[in-house]
Batch of 2 targets.
Target 1
Amino acid sequence: MTTQAFLCRDCLAIGKIANSIDRCPTCGSPRVLRHPELLKLSVAHIDCDAFYASVEKRDNPELAGKPVIIGGGTRGVVATCCYIARQSGIRSAMPMFQARKLCPNATIIKPNMAKYVGISRQIRAMMDTLTPLVEPLSIDEAFLDLSGTEAVHRAPPVLVLARLARDIQNVLGITVSVGLSHNKFLAKIASDLDKPRGFAVIGQAETLDFLAPKPISLIYGVGKVLTETLRRDGFVTIGQLQQHPDEDLMRRYGETGARLARLARGQDVRRISSTREEKSVSSETTFNHDLSTFEPLSTELLRLCERLSERLKAKKLTADTVTLKLKSTGFRLRTRARHLMIPTQLANILYETGQQLLAREIDGTAYRLIGIGVSGVHNALQGDPSDLLEPAIARKAAAERAMDHVRGRFGRDAVVRGKLYRPKTEPTGPGPTDETEGKAR
Ligand code: TTP
Ligand code: MG
């Protein structure tokens, strides 16, 4: 009779169990985790289940057992929906009219961001008591590194995590799913395997076999463009990448190819870095004359994005959230933010994102100030210069770094983008430029 390490997610009993038994020997619960590496793994990803919807259901017991959609705010799309509503095919980002058609009896609730942020902070506080290495990824998910904490907790990471999931449910009334593995890439994949109220483990030994049949789009940073390029070249599953010589992947796709080769084998060296002191960096400028049309505002925006990018590069930082700030002549402030899939330090990406946000704010309002800022700032020293992951971005990154190189040697004005070129005698320029750094929240 062979035995395996087990943990009961209900009564938290831990020990060895015969392979033939699938219930907890202490409490009889079927919610038992078994895995040969269960007591060794220490990198986790935790993600709340149907986050906004779970919070609303918690706060209104009449909604239990009913389909609930959160959305219909300013953008007219679904933010999320509960798992019951998902059975009708509703998904995040779907237009509300389509969601209503799919599930006419769903209760629709407008998002209450202040409430969700409050709960997110409470979850974060609970995580912070377990390890200093908590890295939030978004409002409802975070990585935790519990390596070396066993002596403090007198319990292996798997037990600490199961207890955390149980406590979050008991104290805050919402459920989370946990992924436990040996690196970030796999922990994040694992947390999605068993949702909702899940707990999935991916060990070292099964990493290759686990990844082999999966689509390449499972690899983080592999977006639509890269998936299509790889598909045209005959790569559809991660296994096909595993089988392919690394040198050839590198020859075809450069640095991206080297990353694909490593990630296809489940190798990910990124560390979990706490962003407890989450910083924001921003640049803003006040105009001498109010501006209301896209072109001149966009020119100022480009100048600010270049400055901001310069500072991020100098400090070896990347950021995953871009915020545009506009102040009207009546001193009304508008801020619009966008989360990036791939953190960046590139002026080009900051500018593209800023322009998209700006375009929506051109409605005849006269502005006296424009600013661009980033938050979700990470150290780019170790881990990924993530802008290399997508070939389309990698090309922009290469062009921008070439420009930086020339500027580094011959001074900032050695290369001036056409849009920013201005004869020295030009009478109207921007007013003072303010650059700030501070806490994001
Ligand atoms: P997710 O974790 O992607 O989704 P979820 O928590 O609702 O569901 P799951 O169980 O699959 O994890 O996002 C967290 C929250 O972010 C989500 O509750 C609502 C918000 N959100 C949006 O507002 N728009 C979006 O397009 C997505 C994907 C999420
Ligand atoms: Mg979630």
Target 2
Amino acid sequence: MTFATLGLIEPLLRALETLGYQTPTPVQAQAIPAVLAGRDLMAAAQTGTGKTAGFAVPLLQLLTMEGPKVSANSVRALILCPTRELAEQVHASVAEYAQNLPLTTYAVYGGVSINPQMMKLRKGVDVLVATPGRLIDLFRQNALKLNQLQTLVLDEADRMLDLGFSEELANIYRMLPKKRQTLLFSATFSDEIRQLAGQMLNDPLTVEVSPRNVAANTVKQWVVPVDKKRKAELFVHLMRKGRWKQVLVFAKTRNGVDALVEKLQGLGINADGIHGDKPQATRQRALDRFKSSDVQILVATDVAARGLDIEDLPLVVNFDLPIVAEDYIHRIGRTGRAGNTGEAISLVCADEVNMLSAIEMLTRQTLTRKMEQDFEPEHRVPDTDATGQVVKKPKKPKKPKASGGGKRNLGKWVESGEVSVAEPSIKPVRKVPAFNTGPRKKK
Ligand code: AMP
């Protein structure tokens, strides 16, 4: 299959060729014809599947082929994203796909001055990428009208709910024209997402792309059990031993990011950190320096890392496991993209056993554990498996099997560590607020 057989116009085919896209990814193959046909879409696809082109390319074609010129302060297509990083990244992709088209594109998000954004919107913008809060601010200040809106995209809808944007989404829903095309992309189809889809979408086509077919099956994953207080020491040890060159590290909290960066810098290691407390310009600079290899280790929180698109990233380290199991999939999706192999290593302490268990349940696999010599934890990490069972007490040691090489056997044990991430279809681990289109409740 080629992009031409999907019915794309020549300027778009040329742009995709310039970008080196030869064959549509599975989500693109399904989404592009459906969007061109005007269908609403509910797509389960995560970062790394090529979902951005899946919605943006046909949307750009529809805007080019039909509809009136954009009016002052209006937008014809709106792409909502959970974070500014993702908004910027999606906008960069949209602008690349639109390079040969007579369309205008722009991104708005919070944390930066609103005035330049208001100025930019004056003439109207064909495709606007926005985070929910800033979009509402702009709308309330009359800098933005939505009556010309043809297409709405909710990108990473599950993440928007996770980040507590359900009220904002409800407000935006009330601002939208009734007649429009709506495309919803989400890594998971939780009950909340289905509820949101029920309200926002009209007879949607459901597209599910198993990550098994895409990037994640090239990611080698394993866990190194360690005591909490020795994690930083273990990280430095593994880094030196493995001669790591470029590593994206995830820490749970902003303080955790700062502490690790400080420790690494103190050892003369070229490290930087990004989290929500840092100004946008600082975050962008750290990211740019990481991308250009001026920074070797980039430590990030999940929120700050949303939307980072770093090609050929060889290694992701989970310094802490994520509280929300789905974030594990997002994190490891940063590596092993576009057929490259990648590694994802998680440093796990006894406190994190429930998170480990949730991740194994979600991904339907038992992660290989590799004990690092001299770092064996005093507080043992209880055994886990993909059924969600946490074995609190140490098992009685079994006689090692002749072929087992002393390795433990935990049911669906994966020997090689080269495992695929199964489609994340079970309920979210953390409850997210329900989407509510009704009036705001008084608190
Ligand atoms: P996304 O899932 O949209 O974040 O895309 C993940 C990465 O895959 C991005 O770097 C895209 O530029 C790239 N990509 C998307 N579609 C294709 C394609 N059909 N062929 C090659 N690379 C692609």
